[in-house]
Design a protein that fits this description.
Layout: H1 5-14, H2 25-45, H3 61-65, H4 73-88, H5 103-106, H6 109-122, H7 140-156, H8 167-176, E1 189-192, H9 199-207, E2 213-218, H10 221-233, E3 240-243, E4 253-254, E5 257-258, E6 261-266, H11 301-311, E7 312-323, H12 332-343, E8 346-351, E9 364-370, E10 379-384, E11 390-392, E12 395-397, H13 400-412, E13 420-424, H14 425-430, H15 452-457, E14 460-461, H16 462-466, H17 469-472, H18 476-482, E15 483-487, E16 490-493, H19 500-505, H20 508-533, H21 541-556, H22 564-589, E17 596-601, E18 607-613, H23 619-626, H24 628-654, H25 670-678, H26 687-724, H27 730-772, H28 776-796
Parallel strand pairs: 1-2, 1-6, 2-3, 6-7, 8-10
Antiparallel strand pairs: 4-5, 7-9, 8-9, 10-13, 11-12, 14-16, 15-16, 17-18
Helix pairs in contact: 1-7, 2-7, 2-10, 8-9, 8-13, 13-22, 20-27, 21-22, 22-27, 23-24, 23-26, 24-26, 25-26
């Protein structure tokens, strides 16, 4: 059976446990990623002529396995695996890979042997046979590499996580520079002058409709090696990644000038204080600062941006991630910013949420560049996306909906209140070429002000009700039902506040809205089910989710009271949680409902059978479809059990007081109760106590019997379910998975949006009633009454006031 993406990721991450302790994440990532790289290229290219990566005889993963347990395993890996690989592949360098014989990191003697042996063993898992991965063109391995990189960046800490640009930010850049809309070919060039591990460069390449030429430069030797491996794992073996300082020794040149590219993207180190080391900016041999300005000596942000500008063709487009300070800092940077604005090079600015990046927590922005028709540009399109994110551990992360909204807004140049607008050069000049986004977009929510007259004389301000206008547009009659006049400009609730929720959900208009939403989803379902039923071996899951998610987003656009991006997010979340793994199983095995035993191994190496499972068609789907009566019987007996257990507990609590039968019992169990009974005499004053103890024993026996009955019923149902799987037809499997699993869950999540609407309206109306339901005089009078009662109470107690 094919390995699921989620299992692949967790298996690879487990490999890191073998190395934790001897080094930090910024170091042990190199060992883990090299083994992933070697396993992949061995499975994919070993023994194949004309492969883009050559695997020398004796240097494959199988040869590495043969080194397990050898006393000199580390030295042998260096000599027999790493060295031959780098000797025959020009795109690889020995310096790209870690030293497998380093005692400072791996330990000495047996410790090093055991550590490396166990690490290699993890990659021997038969499920990690990438040669049989039919979905390989879908970058399942490249995604695993990205997964590891993100986790390494998270563990590496603030100072060492800069090798990785979050994939979500990379996707935004890849889309807003417009490479997908461009006419691309193998001659189309993409360049990242500070490419890190190559994630941003790869995202841009993947966004193009045709293969393009990828070029990158990275200052750190080890990180440039990660980038080269990343390129190969993503099927870009011909990509060129150079090592060196981009500002002082750029590697991509044409003669004495910088080479120019069609697209340039970068996530340079923020505010690099040593950018000019080894460089004379006033006599820059590449003319990067001519007629624009020299960046401050201790602030390198504009140095990288100007390198990008110089590296763009006359029609080139690019984007750079920079700290917000570049938008408003003055002096030399203000001069540069003014020059770039007047040249028309800056097409747009996208303000991002804080704490997205692993190297820093400060907020950043994306500066989008476009030289084509720059002279005709009349303004800069700005987006404030700082509020669109989710918490992900210690960091923030852009959700799929946030990415899509940014891209849609930017590519369509749509102006949205408090989110985006086109800012003219005239307005920017009036602000002295300051590009700080809050100067042009106010994203603050309007303050919820209190109405003094409402507090004094009562009544909910009409303005607060009209602020909920988007609801009343859909439920105009409900509005008339909920409110009644008070005086000019003020209204009252016409129902009891505790009835707000029930009134809304039971109102005909709301019921009609709910039915309409269900019918709307049903139409999408009717269209989508046949398409999903046509999935088969060899499908491309990534292409599939793009197609169906875009369809769903477009389908819900324009629906009243519904945020289409929220609906889109429901699908994307469910894809990440369940559907993605299901589709990769289908891509490899087709519509097969294969069961397997769940075997867990304890710390002593002992295996334990934890039952069985089926990933594509979970057990509960089989039970609901074919064994509902059996499940209903189990549920019925469980209800009887709960009632019996409740009666027993009530009896124990009732008889556990000073006068109770169980008073003084250390434990109430069958043994102690029977012992107590033996000490009592029937036909005496003990009869009542005997009756209570007998009642407890009867309840205990009934509870035990019911538990046994449930166990027998569950074992029977489990066996029936397991035996039914081989009887399933392909049509039954498709119906169960598509309708009972995927569609059912997605519909539930979308319906939750409707319930959220009711909750929001109810909370707001309750809040307004609590605020204005009582006038100030009424509150003052109530306070006086309470004060009088307190004084009377104190007087009775003998206190004089």
């Amino acid at each position: 059976m094919a390995i699921k993406k989620s299992e692949l990721y967790s298996s690879l991450w487990k490999s890191c446990d073998e190395l934790r302790g001897g080094m930090d994440a910024s170091q042990y990532k190199d060992y883990v990623l090299f083994l992933l790289f070697l396993k992949y290229i061995s499975d994919k290219y070993a023994g194949k002529p004309y492969a883009p990566i050559k695997i020398p005889e004796g240097a494959s993963f199988k040869d590495l396995v043969n080194l397990k347990g050898k006393s000199d395993i580390g030295d042998q890996i260096n000599k027999k695996i790493v060295a031959p690989l780098t000797d025959v592949n020009d795109q690889l360098s020995r310096a790209d890979f870690p030293d497998f014989d380093d005692p400072a990191k791996l330990g000495d003697g047996k410790e090093k042997v055991d550590r490396l042996t166990n690490l290699v063993a993890i990659f021997e898992d038969k499920n990690l046979d990438f040669s049989k991965n039919r979905a390989e063109d879908d970058d399942i391995l490249g995604d695993a590499y990205e997964y590891l990189m993100r986790n390494f960046a998270t563990e590496s800490g603030k100072s060492k996580g800069q090798f990785y640009t979050p994939a979500e930010v990379s996707r935004v850049i890849a889309k807003v520079i417009g490479i997908r809309e461009a006419k691309t070919s193998a001659e189309t060039s993409v360049y990242d002058p500070t490419c890190g591990s190559g994630s941003l460069l790869l995202k841009v390449g993947a966004e193009a409709r045709t293969p393009v030429t990828l070029n990158g430069q990275e200052k750190d030797q080890a990180t440039s090696g990660l980038a080269r491996m990343n390129m190969i794992l993503h099927g870009n073996a011909t990509a060129e990644v150079a090592q060196g300082n981009t500002l002082t020794t750029p590697k991509f040149k044409e003669g004495d000038s910088l080479k120019q590219f069609d697209f340039v993207v970068a996530n340079p180190p923020f505010s690099d204080k040593s950018w000019s080391n080894g460089l004379d900016p006033e006599n820059d041999p590449y003319g990067r600062f001519e007629a624009i300005g020299i960046p401050p000596k201790r602030q390198g942000d504009y140095a990288y941006l100007l390198h990008i500008v110089r590296s763009l063709k006359s029609t080139g487009k690019g984007a750079c991630i920079l700290p917000h300070g570049v938008l408003f800092r003055g002096n030399a940077e203000g001069v540069i910013r003014k020059a770039l604005i007047r040249k028309g090079y800056i097409k747009g600015i996208i303000g991002l949420p804080p704490n997205l990046f692993y190297g820093t927590g400060i907020p950043a922005c994306i500066v989008v560049l476009d030289k084509q028709d720059a002279h005709a540009r009349k303004g800069i399109f700005m987006i404030d996306a700082s509020n669109g994110f989710m918490k992900d551990g210690a960091k923030n992360r852009l959700r799929a909906r946030d990415i899509h909204k940014i891209v849609d807004t930017f590519t369509r140049q749509v102006e949205i209140d408090k989110y985006s607008r086109m800012v003219s050069f005239d307005e920017i000049e009036q602000n002295e070429f300051n590009l700080n986004i809050p100067r042009y977009i106010d994203n603050q929510e309007e303050e919820d002000t209190h109405d003094i007259a409402g507090h004094l004389y009562g009544g909910i301000p009409q303005a607060d009700i009209e602020a909920l206008g988007r609801y009343w547009k859909v439920f105009p009659e409900l509005k008339e039902t909920l409110f009644k006049p008070n005086r000019s400009g003020y209204i009252d609730l016409s129902i009891d506040p505790k009835d707000i929720h029930s009134t809304i959900v039971n109102y005909p208009e709301f019921k009609a809205f709910t039915e309409g939403m269900n019918a709307h989803f049903q139409k999408w379902q009717d269209k989508m089910v046949p398409k999903l039923g046509g999935l088969d071996v060899g499908i491309k899951p990534k292409e599939l989710i793009v197609e169906i998610s875009e369809d769903l987003l477009a389908y819900y656009s324009g629906q009243l009271l519904v945020d289409p991006y929220a609906i889109y997010q429901h699908l994307m979340d469910y894809w990440d949680e369940v559907m993605q793994d299901d589709c990769y199983l289908i891509a490899t095995d087709g519509w097969k409902a294969e069961t397997y035993r769940i075997i867990e191994t304890d710390k002593n190496g002992k295996e334990k059978d934890k039952g069985w499972a089926c990933d594509l068609v979970p057990r509960e789907l089989i039970i609901a479809a074919y064994f509902s009566e059996e499940q209903a019987e189990i549920d019925r007996v469980n209800e009887v059990l709960e009632e019996t257990a409740s009666q027993k507990q009530e009896l124990e609590e009732e008889q556990n007081s000073d006068e109770g039968v169980f008073y003084g019992f250390k434990k109430i169990n069958k043994g102690t109760v029977k012992t107590c009974l033996k000490e009592l005499d029937p036909g005496t004053d003990d009869d009542e106590e005997i009756q209570i103890l007998d009642e407890w024993l009867n309840l205990f026996d009934e509870e035990s019997s019911l538990k046994k009955d449930i166990k027998i019923l569950e074992i029977s149902l489990d066996l029936k379910s397991l035996e039914y799987y081989p009887k399933l037809t392909e049509k039954e499997i498709k119906d169960l998975v598509i309708i009972n699993k995927w569609i059912f869950e997605l519909n539930n999540r979308i319906n939750n949006n409707i319930q959220d609407l009711v909750i929001k309206i109810t909370r707001r109306l309750q809040e307004l009633f609590d605020r204005y339901g009582s006038t100030l005089p009424e509150l003052d009078n109530h306070l006086k009454i309470l004060e009088t009662k307190v004084k009377q109470g104190l007087s009775k107690m003998g206190f004089k006031i």
